[in-house]
Design brief:
Length: 142
Amino acid sequence: MLVRMRRRTFVSLTVHATCVGSLAACGDPGGPGGLDEDVVVDIADHDGLDRVGGWVRLPSDDTGYSEAIFLERIADDEFIALSAYCNHQGCNVERDGTAYACPCHGSRFAANGDLRSGPASADLRRFETDFDADAGTVTLLA
């Protein structure tokens, strides 16, 4: 069956299809899934975690997660855990002062993982944490 279409309609549909395809190629906003199981981090094993403002980069081999995870002590009894995965093209962000920056295309993220500037389109993934002062551990919850 032959379908006749005006040139303007054809161009409009072509541009729309190209834009949708381009957006899909920019990366998965959700990125890697969550943790498969809880990850217990012994604070004594990581020099940076013994004080507020201290942080460590946990490699994927230590957590079982597909990407590195940044763990920072933000209060005496509170931690924040963020995936290093930038959703723009899957690069790993790096610590930049008290914030994060993607070395591949310049996306910037606040200390809490909130997106500040693109081309990334989503915040860094946050993981829930549970601090046990008596045991001296922080658990990243699956």
